[in-house]
Amino acid sequence: MLTDGGSTSRTSIRTEGKTLYDGQDRPGVLTFVPAGAERVGCYRDVDLSYSALWIDPALVLPGLERLRDTPVLVNRSDAVIGTLLRSLCTEMSLDHVPDTVYVEHLVALVALRMAGLEGNLLPVASRGRLGRRTFERVRDYIDAHISSDISLSEVADIAGMPLDTFARRFKETTGRPPYAYILEERVRRAELLLRDTSIAIGAIAFRLGFSSQSHFTTTFRRLKGITPRTYRLHFSPES
């Protein structure tokens, strides 16, 4: 949970019959509650808004195995986790449905950072690039499923690697994490399709796996600096 705004004059948190925290709430702090844990809170002069990320305990992603052993944490600070959760909330508030590969990558990063707050740091893994044939298999799979909701686990299976190893080596190979690479590929294809004025922009968004035309427009503008409609007006053969 991320406290977005507001405060309390006093917050008291107990778990397993022991007082874990006695102080105040403030914007930007983080709380983690593992599955099945009992957490009792008492709040005074409450004026709080917060965002919560619920993680399925059965999910298999890098870092989650350490997170399962992490106890209840209250009012910790980590700028990276805060930024990640706020970015996801922004996407959802705009009625965008984030790609599975994006959410999986975000959850893995949050898990790794959160476990680190308790000192459960993961060992630094050796670096390495994907082999040429492995990368070609992954690239071909992404090309063939570009209109689908591709998950990180799917492409890791194609590479024949654990999720964390694949994500790390993919970034070493391309300079971008898998979700960013997939988004850039969708936008690259969109540039070609936008030059065909017979295809509606909404149809292009659907064809390339975006959850809506507005999601497509927001992503295209973020990566290219202009909207799809403006791109079409400037760069179509008829312009």
Describe this structure in words.
This protein is α+β, with helices and mostly antiparallel strands and 239 residues long. Helices cover 48% and strands 15% of the residues. It has helices at 64-67, 79-93, 100-117, 132-144, 152-159, 163-174, 178-194, 201-207, 213-224, 228-235, and strands at residues 2-7, 10-15, 18-23, 30-32, 40-44, 47-51, 73-76. Helix 2 packs antiparallel against helix 3 (100-117) and helix 4 packs antiparallel against helix 5. It is globular, with a radius of gyration of 21 Å.
Question: What are the salient characteristics of this protein?
Answer:
48% helix, 7 strands, 239 residues, alpha+beta
Strand order of the largest sheet: 3-2-5
Work out the radius of gyration: 21 Å
Helical segment tally?
10
Distance between the ends? 49 Å
In short:
This protein has 239 residues and is α+β, with helices and mostly antiparallel strands.
SSE inventory with pairings:
Blueprint: E1 2-7, E2 10-15, E3 18-23, E4 30-32, E5 40-44, E6 47-51, H1 64-67, E7 73-76, H2 79-93, H3 100-117, H4 132-144, H5 152-159, H6 163-174, H7 178-194, H8 201-207, H9 213-224, H10 228-235
Antiparallel strand pairs: 1-6, 2-3, 2-5, 4-7
